[in-house]
Design brief:
The chain is built from 18 helices and ten strands. By secondary structure, it is mainly alpha-helical. The longest helix has 22 residues.
């Protein structure tokens, strides 16, 4: 591990407005005057959640512990203790909830306009983007604010409102219906929108639902829905070129030799092949994810990164820094700070979030293979992944096999062993990014949060109702009941 004084250099990255200008040079939301497809496309730039889920998802996960010292932002403190988050500002569940519905409102405004034009054939690409974007925001809402989908209970579990029309009245009443209903609507929008997408319609395809990103979303959706064949089918569309290694992040080659400043700049670039869909979010996570009291510690880092089923050394360790004594940093989430005015000392931090990556698609396909009993296929995918993550990877020495996994995990069940390997590799891949929380939800993984002396501070059992984030209290005025506790 590297221990260096990085504050000055890191701040230079945070506050370099020149590096982030291109992300902010976009036309404003212009809902009042939609007269052509280009203006609808401009509106659809706001049809993606401008909020960030990383902070509250990571802080709820088993990646973090109490360092004993450091700042205590409520967006991290409350999730750590599995309490309803009282903070309503950026990086909070409430902020993300409303960011998703704001994105949905933009998609609905676009669809409403398209339904009234005289030449709808000229708006097909915009219609496709609006439908898929609407499906995505509802998918994230139902995943975080309702019980995780299960075919045995989805028709009874309370969902979230699926909004398909622009709001025309104040305090409209909404019905939450069921998780099953929300999934049906997501699937309907997704399948209707995907064939209409046209990558040529975008100046920068990775800032929109391009075809690859839509296939990645479909892969995730059907994995969560437990339709393994469709999850595999959509993953195959993402990897249609066949050369999977070329579109994965080069952690054990190019990334390994980068400075942390270079890696910060590279990780969320639109030119990085691994990034399928990127969205700009107002967020302090770029400065908070390593410096706050409740976060990844040297102990949890070592638990996640010091060993893995390949027997090799993660390349992540060559880019793992400790700022101070117990603040762990992998250079991924780069904040760019926008001042309120030229001479202002205050402003807003932004981070670019990779919503879909090729790595996730590969993991999702491997998981679907495991569920179908095709363990050999799953191990092939995991070995492709490992070949880009293990230092000095050797196909013979480091290759994952059934016997190696049995020795590492101690069970004779090849499916369970392969799944455990996948979850461990995935946990390491997405450290700091909040993605671990979704696996904790789907696999009912218990979470225990401890302090530096290994004393238990908070525990989340397998079916604890606190796994579902609470809706904002303000929505009760729209007729929505809160989640039971």
């Amino acid at each position: 591990m590297k221990k260096i004084s990085i504050y000055i250099g890191f701040c230079a990255v945070l506050f370099s407005s020149a590096s982030c200008k291109k992300f902010l040079d976009k036309n404003p939301d212009n809902r009042a005057a939609l007269t052509n497809p280009k203006q609808v496309s401009q509106l659809l730039a706001t049809a993606y959640p401008q909020g960030n889920y990383m902070a509250f998802c990571e802080s709820s996960s088993d990646n973090v512990a109490d360092k004993g010292v450091g700042a205590q932002d409520r967006t991290l403190l409350d999730p750590f203790y599995f309490r309803d988050v009282s903070d309503k500002d950026q990086d909070s569940p409430e902020n993300y909830f409303f960011a998703c519905y704001s994105a949905i409102a933009a998609a609905n405004q676009a669809l409403d306009h398209i339904s009234k034009v005289e030449d709808p054939e000229n708006y097909q690409a915009q219609k496709g983007e609006a439908l898929v974007a609407r499906a995505y925001s509802h998918f994230m809402l139902v995943t975080l604010f309702s019980k995780i989908y299960h075919p045995d209970s989805a028709s009874k579990d309370m969902g979230i409102p699926y909004v398909t029309e622009p709001e025309t009245v104040v305090m409209k009443q909404y019905d939450r219906k069921t998780v099953a209903y929300v999934y049906e609507m997501i699937e309907k929008d997704l399948l209707a929108g995907m064939p209409l997408l046209d990558d040529k319609n975008y100046d920068v395809p990775r800032y929109h639902f391009n075809r690859a990103a839509a296939n990645a979303f479909a892969c995730r959706f059907y994995l969560y829905k437990r339709d393994w064949e469709k999850a595999i089918s959509y993953a195959n569309q993402v990897f249609a070129s066949g050369n999977i290694v070329s579109v994965l992040r080069p952690w054990n080659t190019t990334y390994r030799t980068m400075t942390y400043v270079e890696l910060f700049a590279e990780y969320a670039k639109a030119t990085q092949p691994a990034n399928l869909l990127l969205v700009e979010t107002a967020s302090w996570w770029g400065r908070n994810y390593y410096s706050q009291r409740y976060g990844v510690t040297t102990r949890t880092r070592d638990e996640i990164l010091q060993s893995n089923p390949t027997g090799g050394n993660y390349a992540f360790n060559f880019q793992s820094y400790t700022a101070g004594t117990n603040n762990v940093l992998l250079p991924k989430i780069n904040e760019y700070f926008v001042r309120n005015s030229i001479n202002a000392q205050i402003g807003v931090g932004y981070v670019m979030v990779p919503l879909f990556t090729t790595e996730e698609v590969l993991f999702n396909r491997a998981e679907a293979y495991i569920q179908q009993g095709l363990v050999a296929n799953a191990l092939d995918d995991l070995n492709i992944y490992a070949s880009t993550r293990i230092v000095d990877y050797n196909a013979t020495t480091h290759r994952l096999t059934n016997s190696k996994l049995q020795s590492y995990y101690g069970t004779g069940n090849t499916q369970i062993n392969a799944l455990l390997a996948l979850l461990d590799l995935k946990r390491a891949e997405y450290l700091h990014e909040g993605m671990r929380w979704f696996d904790i939800l789907r696999w009912h993984i218990p979470v225990t949060h401890e302090n530096m002396d290994r004393e238990v501070l908070a525990h989340l059992s397998e079916y604890d109702p606190r796994r579902v984030f609470q809706l904002p209290e303000s929505v009760t005025t729209s007729g929505m009941p809160l989640n039971k506790r």
